[in-house]
């Protein structure tokens, strides 16, 4: 990708969703392969990925495959074989975490550094660039200044990628081991149990309850809609939407939303360009609030804030629509916030109980009673709705009208093309030139017959030549280079146009060039540290060889190898529970201490029999969630041991 291009990168659970992501304006799509992706339940076979590749490349959009888990030694060869199959299927790039892959015999396919590689510093970013990674996904926790510093430390041709929308992992990506420690399911191997979404009781060192049944590790959803231009100016060129588990409607809507925002910036700032071909029009107005979300935050992009958590519920609270005015034996009457709100059969409503739990209500039937007044009959018995009474505020978290709208075809993506009709000695020639300069020309013999009505003949020529409706093209101009008006039958014109379109598609396919691989610098770049702990996620001997080659002298095995059986940091996060609960010593009145000198006392998280300790490192302003490997988990796999003596 060129430094002036802006790439909208959309997720795909499967090929059909990926195709619609492209149709709704994505410049690139990322999708899981048959295995080794960080979303284990979102895998796809090679044939389906090849089908997505064929569609994406029609618009010069690219397809990236996630191969971003850490691998055991016995998985390296299957992974290598899969990479070659993906390359043969036309995939443009791989998103990887395991550096052991760089030690294998790989095809000339572009490699991107997954967010799982935890890129927070200019030194780490420059190192990954220098070992041959073309695109690097920065940590979600960075602010604009930190992003700009990474941009200044890397080459212009190294693309910086940043998540702009979707669910947020509370941990620095790649730095969470709670799932593995408690269940044996490793987040670094695509099987996270999402302990961060559970409710916890928070106690202090004396056992006093600080917070009760709060989802204190659950974040609101990321939304950088208001920060796109600032991110561009800081150096971001690839704008990534989270969501390889998301459904078709989510991908359509969120892709369309960011396509619209980026196009507005590109149209206003001609120094930037889209990273693929064509313009997209939508049959709906994109609205991120219509999809599942835990409310929104821009996280740390603009600095630390205290409202980043979804502490009351990890569910979708929806949008406020009104309040309960009456409660009957089989119905609820609602006064809506606006007379324009329409409630539909199948809509999902929700409200907070007195204990601040989110309760859901699915509408079986809705009846309008008057302006802004609706009587709804729930699917479940009225007795099952706790604390539902007159005055209760109600949100809607599923709008069936919106769902049905996105179930239908909802976009068109077209590449601009100019057509020119010339006459030849034997008949006529049609030339097509697309917006990227690709050209196709076809000619066919046909007798010339002088038109009786010149204006009508010209109108007929333009009408039939411009009929590009079922193709990926849109006519930007039609030139008729004729000595005089001719009558040309519609059947001949249609055949000539179809042949020219087919020739242009062939020319575009032949002109498509997969992105080039970055080359590792020589001599090998030196890693910024000479010692690696379990936090480096080194899980195979090829990865160990990689780091040793790059100057690391002491290398510990990944947490999943079970060398660390005692208490360690199972999660490292920029989120601070003390800060979010207004308990941070630096927030206290009169505390002005030097950065790093204030030490916050530990807290404890309790969920059933599970206990985790929160320790606070105030100098970098980070929180460590501390725990240890459960004995039952430790028994289930053999440890991977490395020789630890310094080289």
TrEMBL record:
PROSITE patterns per the UniProt record, alphabetical: PEPTIDASE_U32
Domain of life: Bacteria
Keyword Metal-binding recorded: no
Biological processes per GO annotation: proteolysis
Residue ranges of every copy of the Peptidase U32 collagenase domain listed in the record: 394-508
Keyword set includes Kinase: no
UniProt keyword annotations, A-Z: Hydrolase, Protease
One GO molecular-function entry: peptidase activity
Name recorded for this polypeptide: Protease
Organism the protein comes from: Thiobacillus denitrificans
């Amino acid at each position: 990708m060129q430094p002036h291009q802006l790439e909208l990168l959309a997720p795909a659970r499967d090929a059909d969703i990926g195709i619609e992501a492209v149709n709704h304006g994505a410049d690139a799509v990322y999708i899981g392969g048959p295995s080794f992706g960080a979303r284990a339940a979102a895998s796809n076979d090679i044939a389906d990925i090849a089908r997505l590749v064929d569609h994406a490349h029609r618009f010069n959009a690219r397809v990236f495959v996630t191969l971003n888990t850490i691998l055991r030694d016995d998985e390296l060869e299957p992974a290598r074989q899969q990479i070659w199959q993906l390359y043969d299927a036309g995939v443009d790039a791989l998103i990887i975490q395991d550096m052991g892959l760089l030690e294998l015999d790989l095809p000339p396919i572009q490699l991107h550094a997954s967010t799982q590689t935890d890129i927070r510093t200019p030194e780490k970013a420059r190192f990954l660039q220098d070992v041959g990674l073309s695109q690097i996904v920065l940590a979600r926790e960075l602010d604009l200044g930190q992003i700009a510093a990474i941009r200044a430390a890397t080459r212009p041709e190294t693309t910086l990628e940043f998540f702009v929308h979707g669910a947020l992992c509370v941990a620095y990506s790649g730095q969470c081991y709670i799932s593995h420690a408690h269940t044996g399911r490793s987040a670094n191997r695509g099987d996270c149990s999402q302990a961060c979404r559970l409710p916890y009781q928070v106690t202090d060192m004396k056992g006093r309850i600080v917070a009760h049944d709060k989802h204190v590790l659950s974040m609101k959803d990321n939304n950088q809609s208001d920060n796109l231009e600032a991110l561009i100016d800081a150096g971001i060129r690839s704008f990534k939407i989270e969501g390889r588990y998301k459904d078709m409607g989510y991908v359509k809507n969120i892709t369309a939303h960011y396509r619209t925002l980026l196009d507005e910036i590109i149209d206003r700032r001609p120094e930037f360009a889209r990273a693929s071909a064509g313009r997209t029009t939508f049959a709906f107005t994109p609205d991120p609030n219509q999809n599942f979300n835990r409310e929104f935050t821009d996280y740390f992009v603009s600095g630390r804030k205290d409202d980043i958590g979804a502490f009351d519920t990890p569910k979708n609270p929806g949008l406020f629509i009104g309040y309960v005015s009456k409660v009957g034996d089989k119905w609820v009457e609602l006064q809506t916030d606006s007379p324009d709100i329409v409630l539909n059969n199948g809509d999902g409503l929700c409200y907070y109980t007195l204990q601040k739990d989110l309760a859901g209500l699915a509408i079986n039937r809705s009846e309008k009673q008057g302006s802004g007044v609706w009587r709804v009959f729930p699917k479940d018995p009225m007795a099952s709705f706790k604390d539902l009474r007159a005055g209760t505020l109600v949100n809607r978290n599923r709008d069936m009208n919106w769902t049905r709208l996105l179930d239908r075809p909802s976009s068109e993506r077209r590449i601009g093309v100019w057509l020119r009709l010339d006459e030849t000695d034997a008949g006529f020639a049609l030339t097509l030139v697309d917006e990227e300069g690709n050209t196709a020309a076809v000619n066919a013999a046909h007798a010339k017959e002088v038109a009786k009505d010149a204006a009508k003949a010209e109108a007929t020529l333009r009408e039939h030549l411009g009929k590009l409706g079922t193709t990926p093209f849109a006519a930007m101009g039609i030139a008729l280079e004729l000595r005089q008006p001719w009558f040309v039958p519609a059947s001949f014109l249609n055949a000539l146009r179809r042949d020219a379109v087919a020739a242009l598609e062939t020319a575009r396919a032949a002109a498509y060039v997969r992105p080039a691989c970055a080359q590792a610098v020589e001599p090998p770049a030196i890693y910024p540290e000479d010692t690696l702990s379990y936090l480096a996620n080194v899980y195979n001997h090829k990865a160990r060889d990689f780091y040793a080659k790059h100057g690391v002298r002491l290398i510990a095995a990944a947490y999943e190898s079970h060398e660390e059986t005692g208490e360690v940091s199972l999660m490292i996060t920029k989120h601070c529970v003390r800060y979010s609960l207004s308990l941070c010593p630096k927030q206290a009145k009169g505390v002005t201490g030097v950065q790093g000198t204030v030490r916050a006392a530990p807290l404890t998280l309790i969920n059933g029999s599970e206990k985790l300790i929160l320790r606070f490192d105030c100098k970098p302003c980070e929180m460590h969630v501390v725990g240890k490997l459960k004995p039952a988990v430790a028994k289930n796999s053999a440890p991977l041991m490395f020789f630890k003596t310094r080289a």
